[in-house]
Design a protein that fits this description.
It is built from 14 helices and 18 strands. The chain is α/β, with parallel strands linked by helices. It folds into two domains: about 250 residues, Ribokinase (UDP-N-acetylmuramoyl-L-alanine:D-glutamate ligase, 3-Layer(aba) Sandwich); about 180 residues, 3-Layer(aba) Sandwich (L-fuculose-1-phosphate Aldolase), CATH 3.40.225. Helix 1 packs across helix 7, helix 5 packs across helix 6 and helix 7 crosses helix 8. About 45% of the residues are buried. The mean pLDDT is about 95.
Length: about 450
C-alpha cells in the first residue's frame, strides 16, 4: 500500500488539518501517517486557540515515520511560526518524493493560522521544496503580491508563485463566486490547464481545502502525474462537498467518505434485493398474487429522497404460470411507482425501506388483516392537483393511509377509472417483505 505523510495542524473539530488528511488518504486507498505541527482548538464556528508543538516533537514525528515507512508523497499544511517552518523544511529538504503544499494562512473563519512575521520565511523556505502548491485566491494573492480580479490575474499570480520556486501551482476557484468553479493549474512546463466543475449550491463548507491538497497528495503517492492528480482531487472534493454534513452550529463540514458510503450502500441494496427477487422467483404460487399490471419489488437506500435512490426490477416481475419471473435485473430508478410508495412510507417510518405490490382481491385483504396491520386510501378522494401524476398519487395515498393507521404495514386501494386496485406490502428490507408474502400465500391457499 502506498504511504502518504501529512505534516500539518490538528483540528479538534476534525474538519480540517491532519484529521481531514487522514480521512482523505483512507478514502483514496493510501496509508496515511502524520506529524502534528500545532494543535488548534476549534469547532464548526471558530478557532479558539492555537498551541504550537515543540519543534523537537515535530522533528521526532517526521523522523519516526521516514525511518520506518518512507512516504510516497508528503503534504505540508499548517506551519505556524518561523521555528516550525525551519524544523519542517530541515526535515523535508532532502525528500525524493512529491511534496504538496497547502499554504495555510488563516482559517475560513478568519483566525490566523500562521504568524504574520513568518510569511516571508514561508515563501522563501517552503515554496522551493514543493512539487505542487494549492492556494485559493486569497492565498495566491498573499503569496504572489498580485491582486486577483480575473483569470488573467490568477495566471500572473501563479507565474509569480512558480518563479518563487514552486514547480507546479494550482489556484483554486472556489471563492470566485461563479456558477462554475474553475481551478487553474500552471505546470512546471508552463502549460496552463483549466479544470471546471459545476458549483454546488451550498453556502460554504469547512474542510474542502485540506481535502483537495490531501487528495492530490494521495494521487501523487499512487503514481499519477500532477495534472491527473489535480483533476481527480477535484472530482473527489466535489463529492465531499456534495456529501457535506451539518453536525455543529457553524459551517457544514465536507465529508470525504460520503461517496464511499453511498456506493457501498447502493451495492449492498442491489445485492440484497436481487437475492430476494431470486427467492421470489422460486416461490411456487406467487404467480397467483401478480396483478394485471405486474409486480415490482423495491428497496430504498437510507435517507432515500426519490426514485434514483430506490432499486427495483427493470421491466417488473411477471406471471409465469403459478410462479413469477423478473423481466430484467434490479437497478436504481427502475420503478417510479414503488419508489414513490416507499419514499412516502419512509417519511413516517424511515426504517421501512422495502415494498412489493400484489393483486387486489377482497379475500386477500382479509388474509392480510389476519396477519398484519392494514390501512387503505380512496383514490377518488384525491385532491385534483396530485391526480394527474401517477407517482404523486401513490405518494399521496400512502401518506393518507399511514395517517389513518400509523401501524400499517399493508396498504391497499380499490382503484379508480383506469386505475387497477392494488395491495402494497411493506417491510424493513426485502427479506422481511418476502417473509410476509410467504405468510400471505400460506393463508391464501
Ligand atoms: O482549512 C485550513 C486549516 C488547515 N489546518 C488546520 C486548520 C485549518 C482551518 O481551520 O485548523 C489545522
Amino acid at each position: 500500500m502506498k504511504v502518504a505523510l501529512s505534516v500539518a495542524g490538528s483540528d479538534s473539530g476534525a474538519a480540517a488539518g491532519v484529521q481531514a488528511d487522514l480521512k482523505t488518504f483512507s478514502a483514496l486507498g493510501v496509508y496515511g501517517c502524520i506529524a502534528i505541527t500545532a494543535i488548534t482548538a476549534q469547532n464548526t464556528r471558530k478557532v479558539s486557540g492555537v498551541f504550537e508543538v515543540p519543534v523537537d516533537a515535530i522533528k521526532a514525528q517526521v523522523r519516526a515515520v521516514m525511518s520506518d515507512s518512507p512516504p510516497d508523497a508528503i503534504k505540508v499544511g499548517m506551519v505556524y511560526s518561523i521555528e516550525i517552518i525551519e524544523a519542517v523544511t530541515g526535515m523535508l529538504a532532502g525528500a525524493k518524493v512529491p511534496i504538496v503544499l497547502d499554504p495555510i494562512l488563516a482559517a475560513g473563519t478568519g483566525y490566523g493560522l500562521m504568524q504574520k512575521n513568518a510569511l516571508e520565511h514561508f515563501i522563501k523556505k517552503v515554496l522551493p521544496i514543493c512539487t505542487l502548491v494549492t492556494p485559493n485566491r486569497m492565498e495566491a494573492e498573499k503569496l504572489s503580491g498580485v491582486k486577483i480580479r480575473d483569470d488573467g490575474d490568477v495566471i500572473r499570480a501563479a507565474k509569480r508563485i512558480r518563479s518563487l520556486g514552486a514547480q507546479n501551482v494550482i489556484v483554486k476557484g472556489g471563492h470566485a463566486g461563479k456558477n462554475v468553479v474553475t481551478d487553474i493549474l500552471l505546470e512546471k512546463s508552463d502549460k496552463l490547464i483549466r479544470m471546471s466543475n459545476p458549483r454546488i449550491n451550498i453556502k460554504e463548507t469547512h474542510g474542502s481545502g485540506c481535502n483537495f491538497s490531501a487528495a492530490a497528495t494521495a494521487y501523487l503517492a499512487r503514481g499519477f502525474d500532477v495534472a491527473e492528480a489535480c483533476d481527480r482531487a477535484n472530482e473527489y472534493v466535489h463529492n465531499a462537498i456534495k456529501g457535506a454534513v451539518t453536525f455543529g452550529r457553524g459551517l457544514p463540514v465536507t465529508n470525504p467518505l460520503s461517496s464511499i458510503y453511498r456506493d457501498a450502500q447502493r451495492y449492498a441494496t442491489l445485492v440484497e434485493l436481487q437475492q430476494a427477487v431470486d427467492r421470489l422467483e422460486a416461490l411456487q404460487g406467487f404467480g397467483r398474487l401478480i396483478p394485471e399490471t405486474a409486480t415490482n419489488f423495491a428497496y430504498a437506500v437510507l435517507d432515500a429522497e426519490g426514485p434514483t435512490d430506490v432499486a427495483a426490477v427493470r421491466g417488473r416481475i411477471v406471471k409465469a404460470g403459478d410462479a413469477s419471473v423478473p423481466v430484467s435485473r434490479v437497478e436504481f430508478g427502475a420503478s417510479r411507482h414503488m419508489a414513490s410508495a416507499v419514499v412516502a412510507f419512509m417519511k413516517v417510518k424511515p426504517a421501512t425501506r422495502s415494498v412489493i405490490n400484489i393483486r387486489y382481491e377482497s379475500k386477500l385483504v382479509e388474509v392480510c388483516r389476519s396477519l398484519f396491520s392494514v390501512s387503505s386510501y380512496d383514490r377518488s378522494k384525491e385532491p385534483i392537483g396530485t391526480r394527474r401524476k401517477e407517482d404523486s398519487s401513490v405518494s399521496w395515498g400512502t401518506s393518507v393511509a399511514l395517517a389513518k393507521n400509523p401501524a400499517a404495514d399493508v396498504i391497499y386501494h380499490k382503484g379508480a377509472i383506469g386505475k387497477e386496485p392494488m395491495i402494497t406490502v411493506f417491510g424493513k428490507n426485502p427479506g422481511d417483505v418476502l417473509l410476509k408474502i410467504e405468510k400471505i400465500l400460506k393463508a391464501y391457499r
